[in-house]
Amino acid sequence: MRKQLQGTTVGITGASMGIGAACAREFAAQGASLLLCSRSSEGVQQLAHELQHEYDVPTYAFALDVRQRQQVEQALQELPAQWQAIDILINNAGLALGLEPLQDGSLDDWEQMIDTNVKGLLYMTRAIVPGMIQRKRGHIINIGSLAGRYAYPGAAVYCGTKAAVRAITDGLRMDLVDTPLRVTDLQPGMTETNFSNVRFHGDSSRASQVYRDIEPLQAEDVAQTALFIATRPAHVQIQEVLMTCTHQAASTVVHRPGK
């Protein structure tokens, strides 16, 4: 029986863990060929090997720091010919750093968030979308955030980057309205991944408090939603999806009933 995405090439950034890795697994299960990149070469190579063995799908993994414009351009230009035609791009690479008031924030943290969440997404999109237009097929799924809609204290810059993702996604959709390409902003709320551990620079004790007494989204929940979005009929474009766990209404409006 033919799987839904057999013959489709899916490119995923930030694929070594979290939502990126979960997307890789969900799309592999539907027969997609996987083009996986991450700053962690070892992690993404291991994932590609596991998925190729488990689902018998072609995989190609490489190290890539999406913040580096020249590295992005060179890496994509040097892809083997069979991996050049990307049908679905999942711009997943992103992070939050720190939770200090703006006036006390780290400029280094700000630059890393802006360079990854905004500029990295733009570099990947600019490099890949022209080929999609030429081939007259393609879908760009940007992993945004609830934070792009509802700012919260200590996260002005992170929220600003995700608001930018939302605006960029909307603008790109308008620019492509006369093509068959589809563009989606997938905006999850609290999702239990390595996200908070990264935000707090490895302070796992502090990170664990984010999800205290609540059942947050899991990476698999977001990945399954991305798969649903990508497998709609060609005439259906899901412009955006905002998803949270049941007890989260906005960024800081959370009920913690205990698990």
TrEMBL record:
Pfam families in alphabetical order: adh_short
UniProt cross-references to InterPro entries, sorted A to Z: NAD(P)-bd_dom_sf, Sc_DH/Rdtase_CS, SDR_fam
Keyword Oxidoreductase carried by entry: yes
GO molecular function, one term: oxidoreductase activity, acting on the CH-OH group of donors, NAD or NADP as acceptor
Keywords: Oxidoreductase
Domain of life: Bacteria
PANTHER family assigned: ALCOHOL DEHYDROGENASE
Family per similarity comment: Belongs to the short-chain dehydrogenases/reductases (SDR) family.
Protein name as it appears in the record: NADP-dependent 3-hydroxy acid dehydrogenase YdfG
Taxonomic source organism: Desulfurispira natronophila
Organismal lineage: Bacteria, Pseudomonadati, Chrysiogenota, Chrysiogenia, Chrysiogenales
